[in-house]
Predict the structure.
Amino acid sequence: MPSKITLGSAAAFLLFVGWAAAVQPAAAIPEAPTEAPPGALVTKIVYIGKRYPEPLPLSLLDKPLTDEGVQGARLAIKENNMTGRLIEQHFELVEVVAKATEDIVPKVKAELASGNGLIVADLEPSDLLAVVDLPEAKDAVIFNTRSSRDELRQEECRINLFHIIPNWAMRADALAQYLSWKKWRRWFVIHGTTPGDVEYLAAIRRAANKFGAKIVLERSYEFDAGSRRTDSGHQQIQTQMPMLTQGAPEYDVIFVADAGEAFGDYLMFRTYEPRPVVGSQGLQAVAWHRSFEQYAGTQLQNRFEKQAKRFMTERDFTAWLAVRVVGEAVTRSGKNKPEEVNDFILSPDFEVAGFKGVGLTFRKWDHQMRQPILLSGPRTLVSISPQDGFLHQKFLTDTLGFDEPETKCRFKK
C-alpha cells in the first residue's frame, strides 16, 4: 500500500509555524526557549563533524562554506523546542567539530562517556565506521548525514547506524525512472576516477539493468581541465569536452559520475552532440535543492536563510532532518534514551515530515530513510521520483535503492 500523506501533531505544528512566519510579523511567533524550563525532559543531540579539505567551488557564484551541515542541525533544534515548550520537553545541540588533521574518535568517546548517545554524524565513511564500531557506541543511535556510499547500507551496514542522506543507488534509480519515463534509454556514461565516482558508476550500471536502459559506452575522464579562472581556461575546456564526447554510438543522454566536481559541469553545452547531461551534474538527484518550494518547502527555505544568511544545501537538510527525527521520536513517545529512540523510529508508529508530501520512515533491513528524491537542474526543480507508474506493494519510495529482497545487509548485534 502506498505511503500515507500524514504528518503527526508535532510536524503539523511546525508547518503551522512556517505558514505563520510567511503571513505575520516575526515578532508574532514565540521564540523557542534556549534554556530548559524546570522539570522538562532534556534531550541532548550531538553533532559530530570534521573540517575535511573541500574542493573549491567551480564558480565564483558559489562561495566556500565553513558551516555546512551544522546550520541545519541548529535550525532543527529551534524547531524541536518550539514544540517541546508546549509539553515540557527541551532539546540541546552539542557541537563537536574536529580539525582536518584531528582524530574524531576521542571526541566521540568523551560524549558517549557523558551519556550522549544520540549522534548526528557528518563524517566521511572511514571516520563514520570508526565511530559506529566503538564498543561504547553499541547502544547509540547514529545518523549518517554525509556519505552516499552503498556499502554502508549493504555489506558494511551497522545496527546502530541510520542513513538520512540518500545512497548512490537511490540517486541513480531516481534518475533512471525519469529517463525511462522520457524514453531516454540509451546512456553514454562518463566517469571520473575518485572513490565517489567509482561508487556512483556502479550504481548507474545497476540502475540501467534494473530499469531496462542500455549503456552504449563508458568513458573515463582523462584530461587535465584547464583553469577556467585563467584567460585561456575556457578555451582549453571548450576543446577538451568535444574530444571527450566524440565518437560515441547513438545515445540519448550523457550520464556523468563526477562526485568530486572535477569536470562534470564543463560537459553542459560543450558536448560533441547536443544531448542532455544528467547525474552528478546537469539534472541531479538530490535530497534537497535551493529551488524546491513544494509541500511548504518555501517556509523551511525561508527559516533557514533567515538564520544562516544563505541557501540550504543538501547536507544542511540531512542534518536538519536527523535532528527532527530525534525530536519527533521523543515528542511522540515521551522517551529519550537511545535504545528507546531506536525502537520507536523503527516502529510502525513513526514517521517524520520532511516537506516532501509523504511521511518519511526507515527501512528495517538497512536503516536507510525512504524518501522521495528531487530531480533538479541548476536553478529549477524538474521532477520528483518515484515517477508515476513505478509501483510497489508497500511503499512507492522502496522502488528507489535496495529493496528488502535484494539487500546484502546482515545486522550483527
